[in-house]
From TrEMBL:
<keyword id="KW-0007">Acetylation</keyword>
<dbReference type="GO" id="GO:0005737">
    <property type="term" value="C:cytoplasm"/>
</dbReference>
<keyword id="KW-0479">Metal-binding</keyword>
<keyword id="KW-0031">Aminopeptidase</keyword>
<keyword id="KW-0482">Metalloprotease</keyword>
<keyword id="KW-0645">Protease</keyword>
<dbReference type="Pfam" id="PF03571">
    <property type="entry name" value="Peptidase_M49"/>
</dbReference>
<keyword id="KW-0862">Zinc</keyword>
<comment type="similarity">
    <text>Belongs to the peptidase M49 family.</text>
</comment>
<protein>
    <recommendedName>
        <fullName>Dipeptidyl peptidase 3</fullName>
        <ecNumber>3.4.14.4</ecNumber>
    </recommendedName>
</protein>
<feature type="binding site">
    <location>
        <position position="482"/>
    </location>
    <ligand>
        <name>Zn(2+)</name>
    </ligand>
</feature>
<dbReference type="InterPro" id="IPR039461">
    <property type="entry name" value="Peptidase_M49"/>
</dbReference>
<dbReference type="GO" id="GO:0008239">
    <property type="term" value="F:dipeptidyl-peptidase activity"/>
</dbReference>
<feature type="binding site">
    <location>
        <position position="535"/>
    </location>
    <ligand>
        <name>Zn(2+)</name>
    </ligand>
</feature>
<keyword id="KW-0378">Hydrolase</keyword>
<dbReference type="GO" id="GO:0004177">
    <property type="term" value="F:aminopeptidase activity"/>
</dbReference>
<dbReference type="InterPro" id="IPR005317">
    <property type="entry name" value="Dipeptidyl-peptase3"/>
</dbReference>
């Protein structure tokens, strides 16, 4: 792969032509940096001691055949190429920042760049902070945390960044670098209150919508799309700055390689014009397609080839039905040696809760771990009978899923989860099936850090049993959490998917009176709350079922060992709900992460249960600063904790099944409220927070002999930087820049510097 560092010896004339033009334009940036004086900047800088862990798949990859390695390579490439779209989905400046940093690091060795930084007044700590920022930008596919949605900035001021870019080889290799930096430089360190968190303008930042889109606009367009049965997973919403004939013009833009001159069609709705267009992220989408076609040549069976053909059509033309058909083939591909999924999958970060982030991964199946999950699937129908909502609230037929333990080879998105239950399409999940995966090398890649708020005994147990308990929780969460429960629906022909005369509420025994109408989905009905609500439901299932000895036995934990795993699961999860307060924005009264919101709610359920089951005590730490002491009474898990969570779980399922958003929101808000006590806890959580791990992922390399090898990197921020420079070609970054330049017009105020 040819990178810009190799171009230094190829373009000496270009160096001379542009060098003189760089300094003045870069120096102009410092006058435009904005920061609100009341913001604590340190809270938005990733710590220099941020741990880096290897996503280790070496043994699993080595076990694959040459054909399987080739298949995995092309899916990995498609996933990483497509994940460039995430930078375009996060913030107006994210893609531009990545373009600058990639070219900066590709232009010359890190050692040479460091020398230039130190020569221009940087300290060693500032250089390290800059590398941590760069690694964080790539791990999160943007400058907002994938886990928390808050902005992070470099631990070095923009004046010094200007000097480094001025002195860099990249500034001479790439004539357009100074223009990109001029646009994003004022934003990279800016901490205006409206820029701190993802969300609707004016209180937050999003690029799922143009900056002039309000919640009112989003709701209007969603009503239009619902009336047309149009789902928005792979779309964005933009509003023209000028009206046409006195009518507001909205553009629903679909991700696809193909573009359409004046658009697909347009309709009038509630006094506005809604226009449908293709070609969002077109250059990036076009980079996915060739690798999917190459993967098809190495596919193991016709099911995979049919799946990939549908994905190719989807990314080419943008039709969601193609991706759904590809997903239907995917769930039929049972027990593959190489597992994968790719598309616009999770809607956590869209403030409206309906549009989704790109995600792609490929992994090798861990056969030993998969045996446990297969045994859980074998027992799933009987286990579902233990749920607190009864048969009427469960799917008519258990759709036996494929559930595998995987070692991830490549994961392109804003973060890597520990487990996944997909696809997310309601019509497929409910009537045709789904798959579950547990990502074993993600679960095991845990740096050893002191655990806040625990006594020594509990901390020792956490270190010893956390991986085991988390494997149990992930398995139950994904298969029996996300995989359980029924949505009551009226079909387009007027019939229902449940017996309206006999089905009664599990809460009060009354007949069911609300349901999902045609065109409504779980995501569209519950909107921005849907992510946290569903994660809470799945987590609660894990809490309840991990108490059953026969389930623990499936995972290989019996007797005293089983009791320790059960205790550590409850201890870990409920403590996580306390620590989740770090991700609550007290100024905006808003949660920044769905899983954190979910876990906090469950912690409050357990606190409300009383009887000393969970105790959180404010204390003074050994360092003389405010601290917390967290205790869970293990003797009361079955008698107090489990009944409380089980009753709460029943309510969650009722409101979800019956499409009762108002009831579900009221329940969730009751347990999710933050008072003075919780705000004091939050202050301690923030003051004592530990940095989240960053992954350094390997790259697959296709050799001239047609065989694929795996290249791993050092568990350092330098290793992360080297990995992403190797991962992308110069052409890929140019395509990203083209997409970014084309979309800048939708956020004029962001770039008004």
């Amino acid at each position: 792969m040819l990178h810009a560092r190799h171009l230094l010896r190829l373009a000496p004339r270009r160096i001379g032509l542009v060098a003189a033009a760089v300094p003045r334009q870069i120096r102009l940036l410092s006058s435009h940096i904005r920061m609100s004086p009341q913001i604590d900047r340190s809270l938005h800088v990733l710590p220099n001691d941020t741990p880096v862990v290897l996503l280790d798949c070496r043994d699993s990859f080595a076990s694959l055949s040459d054909q399987e390695k080739l298949y995995a390579h092309h899916i990995a490439r498609a996933s990483f190429e497509g994940s460039l779209a995430v930078y375009l989905q996060v913030s107006p400046e994210a893609a531009g920042i990545f373009v600058v940093l990639y070219r900066l690091f590709a232009g010359e060795p890190l050692s040479a760049l460091k020398e230039k930084a130190l020569a221009n007044g940087w300290s060693a700590e500032e250089w390290q902070s800059f590398l941590v920022y760069a690694a964080g930008l790539h791990n999160n596919s943007g400058n907002y945390k994938g886990f928390g949605d808050s902005k992070f900035v470099p631990g070095v001021d923009v004046e010094k960044l200007n000097k480094l870019i001025d002195a860099s080889a990249a500034a001479t290799i790439y004539p357009g670098l100074r223009d990109v930096w001029k646009a994003v430089g004022p934003l990279i360190c800016s901490l205006e209150p409206s820029q701190l968190q993802l969300g609707f303008a004016p209180g937050g930042v999003t690029t799922y919508h143009s900056e002039n889109i309000t919640k009112h606009d989003a709701d209007l367009v969603d009503r239009c799309l619902k009336a047309r049965n149009f789902e928005t997973w792979n779309t964005r919403l933009f509003k023209d700055s000028q009206q046409r004939d006195g009518k507001t013009v909205y553009r629903v833009v679909v991700a696809s390689a193909e573009t359409d001159g004046n658009g697909l069609e347009e309709v009038e709705f509630e006094g506005a014009i809604v226009k449908f267009e293709r070609g969002d992220y077109s250059q990036v989408m076009a980079r996915i397609v060739p690798h999917l076609k190459k993967a098809s040549e190495a596919a193991a069976n016709d099911t995979q080839r049919q799946m990939l053909a549908k994905y190719v059509a989807h990314f080419t033309r943008g039709a969601l039905d193609d991706h759904k058909d590809g997903s239907r083939q995917w769930i039929k591909d049972v027990n593959p040696a190489v597992e994968s999924y790719i598309g616009f999958i999770e809607n956590y970060r869209d403030p409206a809760g309906t549009r989704s982030e790109f995600e792609g991964f490929v992994a090798a199946v861990n056969k030993e771990t998969s045996k446990k999950f297969k045994a859980l699937v074998d027992q799933a129908e009987k286990i579902l009978e233990r749920m607190p909502w009864g048969k009427a609230y469960e799917k008519d037929r258990f759709l036996r899923p494929d559930f595998t333990g995987l070692d991830v080879i490549a994961f392109g998105s804003s973060g890597i989860p520990a487990g996944i239950n997909i696809p997310n399409y309601d019509d497929i999940r409910q009537d045709e099936g789904f798959k579950n995966v547990s990502l074993g090398n993600v679960i095991s890649a845990t740096p050893k850090q002191k655990m806040n708020f625990l006594d020594e005994g509990d901390e020792d147990l956490m270190f010893k049993y956390h991986k085991d308990s988390f494997e149990v929780q992930v398995g139950l969460h994904e298969l029996l959490g996300h995989g359980s429960g029924k949505l009551f629906q009226r079909k387009p022909d007027g019939s229902f998917n449940f017996d309206t005369s006999a089905t009664v509420s599990v809460l009060d025994g009354a007949k069911i009176s609300t349901w999902y109408e045609p065109g409504e989905t779980w995501g569209s009905k519950f909107g921005a709350l849907s992510g946290a609500y569903e994660e809470c439901r799945a987590e609660a299932v894990g809490y309840v079922l991990c108490c059953d000895e026969d389930i623990l036995k499936i995972f290989g934990y019996e007797g005293e060992l089983g009791q320790q795993v059960k205790y550590v699961n409850w201890l870990s999860e409920i403590r996580a709900g306390l620590m989740a307060l770090e991700f609550y924005n007290a100024d905006q009264k808003k949660w920044g992460q769905a899983h954190c919101h979910a876990r906090y709610v469950l912690t409050q359920v357990c606190l409300e249960a009383g009887q000393g089951f969970v105790v959180i005590e404010s204390i003074t730490g050994p360092d003389g600063k405010p601290d917390l002491k967290f205790k869970l009474d293990r003797t009361k898990i079955d008698s107090v904790g489990k009944p409380a969570v089980r009753e709460f779980l029943k309510k969650l399922q009722h409101y979800k099944s019956t499409a009762d958003f108002a009831g579900g929101k009221a329940l969730f808000d009751h347990y999710g409220k933050i008072g003075d006590v919780e705000l004091a806890w939050r202050d301690v959580c923030i003051a004592r927070r530990k940095p989240r791990r960053q992954f350094v992922q390997p790259n697959t390399i296709l050799g001239p002999d047609g065989k694929v090898s795996l290249k791993s990197y050092a568990e350092t921020v330098e290793g992360v930087v080297e990995s992403f420079v190797d991962r992308y070609s110069i052409d890929a970054i140019e395509d990203l820049e083209k997409c970014w330049s084309a979309q800048k017009k939708w956020w004029p105020n962001a770039f008004a510097n």
